[in-house]
Design goal:
Number of helices of chain A: 4
Strand content of chain B: 15-25%
Strand order of the largest sheet of chain B: 4-5-10-7-9-8
Number of strands of chain B: 24
Helix content of chain B: 40-55%
Structural class of chain B: alpha+beta
Distance between the termini of chain A: 28 Å
Structural class of chain A: alpha+beta
Radius of gyration of chain A: 15 Å
Largest sheet of chain B: 6 strands, mixed, barrel
Number of helices of chain B: 28
Shape of chain A: globular
Radius of gyration of chain B: 39 Å
Order of helices and strands of chain A: HEHHEEH
Oligomer: heterodimer
Strand order of the largest sheet of chain A: 1-3-2
Shape of chain B: elongated
Helix content of chain A: 55-70%
Largest interface: A-B, 23 and 25 residues
Distance between the termini of chain B: 65 Å
């Protein structure tokens, strides 16, 4: 079974969303799907976490939203990464690597 | 760009709430659809697919709530929320809201009005360039203690030529002239000024130019007009420069017109309340060399050099004065120069009164705030339940306090808005009172500065009186509140304590104000009771100036003889007289000495006000003849010089002696002829000249045929309303000579009443504020006691059930209220004791600790407090114990 996402830190989810959008604009549902794809089904984002996260990131100004038409001709809200968002993604990636490396080192010593 | 977008999104969130709701719904719906479709693709049936999707989605409502918080959130959003909620709450209890708003309106409105006046009168600088550099220069008669004497032309020239401290100094004197050569000769106020005056003030003429130095030197017949004269008499003619007009029958060329609003000397500088309409050059150098050179007529205005301080300038001018004294010891003994900064001259007399009023309105505002605080506390305690539930649902204490504070600020802003409009109206009223004694009062307006003050004041008071109730009510622990709330109106000892404290402060403040108003009222009544020394009833005064044609003294005397004869023949006239100086008006004075007494050097001689009068003058004015005789037709020109003295001279200089038959010598300026020698033939009562409050010193009366003047004041005693005869008398005089200057016919009663106007104004205002304070305090007391009665219904019910009668309940409640009042009265009396000594300058004939006033005010307050306690007490006796006990 895929890991329940409630264990993910809030900041991590934000980073994943930014990463998902770095490959191109998506609507909310699409973001959740892409994260699942990219993690090879390991991560499933709950709707209850996804939308608050999206709105929060939008408020910060890292993504913008625009109404458009989805692949099946339905009206949907598309999110796009901004330049500030791209920069933020880079920062978060660096932080994450540093954090992951540190945790890894701790867990190595047994 | 980033920030712009951020602000845009935030604003968008704020303003398009409905649209955002809709968008969120759409987004969620889309998501559901996609999930359902995926489920169908995976092989579920449509129904299953949808159900699964919904289940997966979870609680949509909660998601939307979270999302909404994130999207919305922020200070502005919550503020708007709070305001909407607050408005709803306030409108739900209209009675409470109205009382609170109205109370604040009173407090803030009164404050705004007085601050407007203070702003205009005390704070606004004079409308000249760099007004802080301007000083008024007076001659300081150190010996007699006259700080603000006029100076002579010769002295002024020395000041001007010898000083190093002034950038410029100009001389001026106020005057009046008759605009002739037109259908309606019109008296206009004028001033003669040095040519450099306009430059000194930094004032540019709007048309033409000011005066040239040569024009001043040779006294050229040129004039500069005021804007209003240009508009009124010359139709705003832009080509007026170079044309001429006639004053007193002589031609003058118009060289300039000043812009609107320019005036010098301005009323607030204290040289006469009229606005000057015309300026003429003052040929001071020529005068200084003439016979009148050492006569004191002029004043000086100077601009300090940029890095010269007032002390430095004063020191130098004193040195110059000493130099002059050494050279002219006969005229300038103990004469110094007194430099007074222009702005200090403006506020000097008025400051104490205005500050007292400012203090009074602050008290009123504090009392209003205390009242509203009490009101809010009562309201807050009745909302305990609502607030407890909100806190249980997750609202933080800070949030609750913020919301309650928003409510109270809205209250005070509403009160402030109403108060502002009240103030607009009130200030307009004050400005139109025409009180010349209070300079620039007529310019008082509620301007932007004052309005922002009002706004700030409203917000601050709102926070102030909202804080206590808000913190108190949000402190309660959840369980307790709900339990207490179920029992009806909760209160608690804490609230009673605060409420009692507030009532005591209100009572104390109101009492202090009442004492102040009482002292002022007593002063005013004392003033009215002062005996002016003459009988002002039914006496008309007509100042008359003879035009150029009457050069000889005999011509002048003849004119007035005839005038008196004609006036006395008119119906309704009982008697008529004439005088050169009129009490509560113009005055002439000089030094004198008594021939029979050891001679005194000129500097040491006493000064007296001089009156050249006709024989019937004393009858008309009602001044009693105490000894000797009055003037007759025999005291004409050429006969022995005679004088009548007032009783203060008799008392001071002839104690135990008979003054009749002794001789006076009256000094005249050197070069103006011989001193006058007069025989004392009579003694009359002292007549107040400089207002009812001031002592009037020695007065000497001369027979006017022996001392004629072209400018005299006719006094007429009538049998009925004096002014009704004014037109008849005016036409009689005009018939005698068309070019007469008749300025301002009034009555003696008017003159005396006008002199009391400032005090009357001040006293009325203070009393009004004190009355408001008393009402507010009484209402506050009543309210607090009312609430207490309602809270203690249970207790009262039990008491009555146990046998207490109506009387006992009354005693209980009234006792509680009176205890608070008496403590407040005690605190107030102590405070008044300390504070009224600040008012000493405003009092007349009353000590600041006058026991009678204190006692009366206290008694009045206790009566009012008793009534305020009695009403709720009576209500308490109507409590039906059975109903109350069952209810709980």
């Amino acid at each position: 079974m895929p890991t329940p996402n409630t264990k993910l830190l809030q900041g991590t989810l934000d980073m994943l969303i930014l990463k998902a959008l770095s490959l191109g604009p998506l609507h909310g549902y699409g973001v959740g799907q892409r994260i699942m794809q990219m993690s090879e089904d390991a991560l499933r984002v709950e709707e209850g976490s996804l939308y608050p996260a999206l709105y929060r990131i939008e408020r910060q100004g890292w993504i913008t939203a625009e109404w458009g038409v989805s692949e099946n001709n339905l009206r949907a809200k598309f999110y796009k990464l901004t330049r500030a968002g791209r920069k933020q993604l880079q920062i978060e990636e660096e932080n994450w690597e540093r954090l992951a490396g540190a945790v890894f080192k701790v867990m190595q010593t047994s | 760009m980033f920030w712009l977008r951020l602000i845009y999104t935030r604003l968008y969130g704020l303003l398009r709430k409905d649209q955002i709701e809709q968008e969120m719904d759409d987004e969620m719906r889309f998501h559901l659809l996609m999930r359902t479709r995926d489920n169908i693709e995976r092989g579920m049936s449509p129904d299953e697919a949808e159900r699964g999707a919904r289940r997966r989605f979870g609680n949509v409502g909660r998601i939307k709530d979270l999302a909404r918080d994130i999207k919305g959130g922020g200070f502005m959003e919550t503020l708007l929320q709070d305001m909407r909620y607050g408005a709803r709450m306030l409108l739900k209890y209209p009675g409470f809201t109205l009382i609170a708003v109205f109370t604040m309106a009173l407090g803030i409105g009164a404050n705004t009005a007085i601050v407007s006046v203070v702003n205009t009168v005390l704070l606004r600088p004079l409308p000249f360039r760099d007004p802080h550099q301007l000083v008024v220069a007076f001659k300081w008669d150190r010996q007699h203690g006259f700080l603000e004497n006029s100076t002579s032309a010769a002295d002024f020239v020395e000041w001007r030529d010898q000083n190093q401290v002034f950038d410029k100094i100009a001389a001026f004197i106020t005057s009046g002239a008759l605009l002739t050569g037109v259908d309606e000769p019109e008296p206009i106020s004028s001033a003669l000024v040095s040519a450099n005056l306009f430059d000194l003030l930094g004032a540019q003429p709007m048309l033409g130019r000011g005066f040239l130095p040569e024009e001043e030197k040779r006294g050229a017949p040129v004039v500069v007009l005021s804007h209003s004269l240009w508009q009124r008499r010359f139709g705003s003619d832009p080509g007026l420069i170079g044309k001429s007009l006639t004053l007193n029958g002589r031609n003058f060329t118009i060289v300039g017109v000043m812009p609107a609003g320019f005036d010098f000397p301005r009323a607030e500088l204290g040289f006469g309340a009229d606005r000057r309409e015309i300026w003429q050059p003052l040929y001071i150098d020529a005068i200084s060399r003439s016979v009148q050179g050492r006569a004191n007529y002029f004043y000086g205005i100077a601009r300090l050099k940029p890095n010269v301080t007032l002390e430095q300038a004063q020191a130098e001018m004193t040195a110059i004065a000493h130099r002059i004294e050494r050279e002219h010891s006969d005229t300038n003994t103990a004469m110094d120069v007194n430099l007074i900064p222009a702005h200090k001259r403006v506020v000097g007399k008025v400051r104490p009164a205005l500050l007292a009023l400012l203090g009074a309105v602050c008290f009123v505002l504090l009392i209003a705030c205390a009242n509203v605080t009490n009101l809010l506390m009562v309201r807050a305690s009745s909302r305990r339940r609502e607030i407890a539930i909100r806190m249980a649902l997750g609202a933080s204490r800070a949030r609750i306090i913020r919301q309650l504070l928003t409510e109270s600020v809205m209250l005070s802003l509403a009160g402030g808005a109403i108060g502002l409009s009240l103030a607009f109206w009130g200030v307009r009223l004050l400005a139109s009172l025409g009180l010349n004694e209070i300079p620039r009062l007529n310019e008082a307006r509620v301007d932007l500065w004052v309005m922002s003050f009002t706004l700030t004041l409203s917000v601050i008071t709102g926070l102030l009186f909202g804080l206590a109730p808000a913190t108190r009510v949000s402190k309660a622990k959840f369980n307790e509140s709900l339990k207490e709330a179920n029992r009806g109106l909760a209160g608690g000892a804490g609230q009673r304590y605060t409420s009692g404290l507030l009532v005591i402060s209100e009572v104390a403040l109101a009492l202090i104000l009442l004492v102040g108003a009482g002292l002022l009222t007593k002063s005013f009544l004392n003033l009215l009771r002062v005996n002016p020394g003459f009988n002002p009833e039914n006496v008309m005064t007509i100042p008359v100036s003879l035009p150029q044609g009457y050069r000889e003294g005999q011509q002048q005397t003849a004119f007035f003889e005839q005038a008196l004869r004609r006036i006395e023949a008119a119906p309704g006239v009982r008697a008529a007289g004439v005088t050169s100086s009129i009490p509560f008006g113009s005055v002439r004075g000089s030094n004198f000495s008594i021939q029979e007494h050891p001679p005194l050097p000129p500097g040491a001689r006493p000064n007296a006000t001089l009156y050249a009068v006709s024989p019937k003058y004393f009858d008309v004015m009602g001044i009693p003849l105490l000894k000797g005789r009055g003037f007759t037709e025999l005291d004409a020109k050429g006969a022995t010089g005679v004088a009548i003295i007032d009783e203060s001279i008799a008392r001071r200089f002839f104690p135990g002696d008979d003054a009749i038959g002794k001789h006076l010598t009256i000094d005249v300026p050197p070069g103006a002829g011989e001193p006058t020698h007069l025989e004392i033939i009579g003694i009359v009562g002292n007549a107040k000249h400089f207002g009812l409050e001031r002592e009037t010193g020695p007065q000497i009366y001369e027979a006017y045929p022996q001392h004629p003047f072209p400018g005299m004041t006719l006094v007429v005693r009538t049998s009925a309303d004096p002014l009704s005869l004014a037109p008849a008398i005016r036409s009689e005089l005009r018939a005698m000579d068309r070019n007469l200057l008749i300025s301002g016919i009034t009555t003696m009663e008017d003159r005396v009443a006008t002199s009391t106007l400032p005090r009357r104004f001040n006293t009325l205002l203070m009393t009004a504020f004190a009355a408001v304070a008393l009402t507010l305090a009484a209402v506050g007391l009543y309210g607090a006691l009312s609430h207490s009665v309602t809270q203690r219904r249970q207790e009262i019910g039990i008491r009555m059930a146990m046998g207490a009668r109506g009387r006992d309940v009354l005693k209980l409640v009234v006792g509680q209220g009176m205890k608070l009042s008496l403590i407040g009265v005690a605190v107030g009396l102590a405070g008044a004791f300390g504070l009224t000594r600040l008012m000493v300058k405003l009092l007349f004939g009353v000590k600041p600790t006058d026991p009678l006033t204190f006692a009366l005010v206290t008694a009045m307050f206790i009566v009012v407090a008793f009534v305020a306690c009695y009403i709720p007490a009576r209500r308490a006796t109507k409590v039906d114990p059975i109903v109350v006990l069952r209810c709980e």
